[in-house]
Amino acid sequence: MSREYPSQPLPGVAAITIHEGKVLLAVRGKPPSFGKWGIPGGVVEVGETLDEAIKREVFEETNVRIEPVKLITVFDAVNKDDDGRVHYHYILFEYLCRYVSGEVHASSDAPDARWVAFDELDSIDIMPSTRRFIDRVLKENNLI
Q1: How far is residue 107 from each of residues 33, 42, 60, 140, measured CA to CA in Å?
Q2: Is residue 2 part of a domain?
Q3: Where do runs of H (alpha helix) occur along 1-144?
Q4: What is the CATH number of the domain that holds 92?
Q5: What digits encode the pLDDT tens for the residues 58-107?
Q6: How far apart are CA 144 and CA 137, in angstroms?
Q7: Which long-range contacts (CB under 8 A, 24 or more apart) does 118-126 make?
Q8: Contact at 8 Å (CB) between 113 and 107?
């Protein structure tokens, strides 16, 4: 099924991974939000569990191995075009994750990836909604 103008919502996963006072972020290599810094993640593949998907997606985008700690939230991400048609629709499962191993390296899916210190989040091109979400997760989980 096409990701653009899908016939039904697509399940996706994303990981807020915290390590040594930093959060793991990647530059989006595909729309929506192409070129913006964001939380690593992607679409769940057929036959894959949510845990398998989040581990695979984070590794593919950053070369970092993670372990999901807990499901933070589930929400719809719906983007409509100028005519009001649904251009993208994902049901996103957002996880808090812990770092396991690996050195960060960018990939074809994410042209840049790195650990970003909490106090440096304002210095990168990140969507305001993503920044607010990260702040909320850090506060709710007593990470700041």
Answers
A1: 17, 14, 7, 31
A2: no
A3: 50-62, 128-140
A4: 3.90.79.10
A5: 999 999 999 999 999 999 999 999 999 999 999 999 999 999 999 999 88
A6: 10
A7: 118/21, 118/22, 118/23, 118/144, 121/23, 124/25, 124/37, 125/35, 125/36, 125/37, 126/25, 126/36, 126/37, 126/38
A8: yes
Q: Which amino acid is at 42?
A: G
Distance (Å, whole) CA 70 – CA 30: 26
Are 102 and 49 in contact by the 8 Å Cβ rule? The answer is no
Q: Does residue 14 lie within any of the structural domains? A: yes
Output the average pLDDT for the chain.
93
Domain that holds residue 130: 10-140
Phi/psi of residue 88, nearest 5 degrees: -140, 145
In contact, 109 and 27? CB cutoff 8 Å: no
pTM, 2 dp: 0.89
